[in-house]
Queue: 2 jobs
Job 1
Amino acid sequence: MVVHIVMFQFKDENKEANLIQAKQMLESLMGRVPTLRSMDVGVNFSPEERAMDLSIITTFEDKEGLESYAVHPEHLKVVDFIKQVVEYSKVVDYEKTL
């Protein structure tokens, strides 16, 4: 199993609305991207300076599944939106044994 984690820091302009829209768009990918096995999307509530605004944790059967997700047309629509409203993001990908 492959775990893909992304954390996003959003721009201040329209932050709340953009967070809601990004969360909804990401969650809508379940069932629409065949290789996506699970997804957890969370909006941060921590006031810490180092906190990020939104995170996703997704799982795939293998690296090929993650690669298919990365280029899937439905995922690319979400990426296009997020690129417009995010200052930066961080990612971690790893293999997990069951």
Job 2
Amino acid sequence: MDIPNWRESFEREIEMAEAARAAGNQGMARVCARRAAGVVAGEYLRIHGLGLPGPSAYDCLVAASQRPEISSQARQCLQHFLLRVNADHELPVQVDLIEEARWLAGELLG
């Protein structure tokens, strides 16, 4: 069985995030964007020989956000994916997680 490379997994999640947003499902768009960012974080950890901390995107995002060598801007971006929604199902900050996932891919993986 072929294991998709990180870019294929990332693009698939971004496409699903965009489709969910277009359908008016912001919650699913956030979930897919978070998974896309988790793919990036996991690949970053892998190429730096750090191994995956667990099976979830969340685990990879937490681990990558704790790496001392990443920029403060990348760390802040990673933190956005770890935020919880409020009672109105909105993030406490105004960010576009789909765009942030794309930026993170460029920043951490070139």
